[in-house]
Amino acid sequence: MKTAALFGLTGQGIETAGEILSNIMRSQGYTHRAWRDFSTIIRGGHTAFEIYISEKGEEAPPPRIETIDIAVVWDDEGAKRYLPRMADSAMLFGSMNTTMVPEENRGETPKLGFNVWSLGVIAGYLGIPFPLLEDSINQHFAGELNQNLAHRGYILGQFKNKGNTVTNKLSDLVTISGNDALSLGAIAGDVRHYFGYPITPASEILENLTKWLPPLGGKTVQVEDEMAAIYAAAGASYAGERTFVASSGPGIALMTEALSYLGATEIPLVIIDNQRGGPSTGMPTKTEQSDLQHLRYAGHGEFARIILTPTDVLDCIAVIQEALNLADYYQCPVILALDLDLAVRRVSLPWVAVEQAIRSVTVDRGPTLLESLPIEDYARFHSVDGAPPVRTVPGIKGGGYVASGDEHDEKGFMEPDFKVVRETHHLRRLHKADQIEYQRPLSIIGNMDAPVAIIGTGSMSELIENLVKRQPEQYKGVLLRQLHPVPVESIVNALSEAKTVIVAEYNATGQIRSMIESALVDRQIHSLLRYNGEHYTLEEFQDSVTSILSAQKELTRG
């Protein structure tokens, strides 16, 4: 594996240079994973881009790891960050602004050309053919000045090349983020209209669908705020359209009133929360998994909801399709909880794997009448033997009903006999998703007999999976997809042989652990928590797990 890092000021085009490098490696058939760290301010903060490149033809992208083979930094702030992580300190390069970089590794570069020069340094070291680099740069930064900067950097990096060569592996790869995957899955799930309001890190979904829906006969609407987005989506769903909304913590808070309306009217809708650090505006460009208790209980009154969590980028494609099906069947909000790292993480994957994920779920509208013969004596909220009620859409003759947020009877009429409907209709509506028919509540990684089980989801999943690969005799992973209702039986079975359980999550209070507590009885349970906004490297994660087990061992001895 080869690893490279770029570090500079926000506004210097660091991410664009990283995107060019990523596209070059993808075009040559190298699976890889990128990690992006960007400031919360538009100008003046720092931006980092790291790329981890597989060299042995693995289909799965590598995780984020600690050791960096080559790094190019704009200033000493970057040098301080990357020197401790360098495999060889002689492979740290930088501009003339730096004092901590070896003098022979510094280059004269303008502030707004540093990204192109840096890209040249890394390309020279990796052995990327210069004509390939030149063509890629021309697509973004035309002009002789940029070509000269890239060439100067390339010569400097090539001088440190240790026989590295990038050759075409003839693999058909595609590079996508978690947000890209959600957008692709939504389209596969028959979404053709989307209402959204920009917010980090969910804006990419709005941007994607604005480009991708019109050729399919669909459209997006950027509305004035998150409240308008969810109510517009609720209206579209009421009309029979499949749609969803996506936001982050502050936007989800604004959507909370509408969640209760969806619960009362039993209008299906998928809501995506790309979680970032809080509270309030918090750390808008840093990863966290701290909205989970809010997602579980948000809204006034009591009503059913389902919460799912994708485990990796590819999984996002299938999970959003499954969520759309579950929402239609159970007629309630289905919430997808991602975290920032998974949402913006970019990985290269074989196109065949992406295509298989797209085709893995069949559209199922549940008990929804889109077309029918005229019906008589229709009661929208009437359930037969506990089954979901039949839902109609406008235009079904005899199928009209009132979708009131006021308490109502089975026909939707307000001011019913509350003593009756609260004991019948309300309880049916409240408990309809206590147990759901979902075929993939979790995935088990590794040997069922391993003594230590690590539970996690979202961006934690790649760390768990790769740690299990390193020590399969010691660890197994339990990657959760269904957080609510808690799949107690599935979790208990997955932990059957484990003596110790570690729940790994990005928050300070152990929210996942508290949500699944009913499935963790009679176990030695530990929480592994991080809440500083930065995604673990694999080595950091392994050290943290080892520390927990060592402390447990010492306590047992004592």
From TrEMBL:
Record keywords: Oxidoreductase
One Pfam family hit: POR
EC number(s) per entry: 1.2.7.11, 1.2.7.3
The UniProt record lists the keyword Repressor: no
A GO MF label: 2-oxoglutarate synthase activity
Limits of the Pyruvate/ketoisovalerate oxidoreductase catalytic domain: 11-105
Keyword hit for Transcription: no
Enzyme class: oxidoreductase
Residue ranges that the Swiss-Prot or TrEMBL entry lists as coiled coil: none
Pyruvate flavodoxin/ferredoxin oxidoreductase pyrimidine binding domain segment(s): 185-343
PANTHER family for this protein: 2-OXOGLUTARATE OXIDOREDUCTASE SUBUNIT KORA, PYRUVATE-FLAVODOXIN OXIDOREDUCTASE-RELATED
Record protein name field: 2-oxoglutarate ferredoxin oxidoreductase subunit alpha
Organism: Ammoniphilus resinae
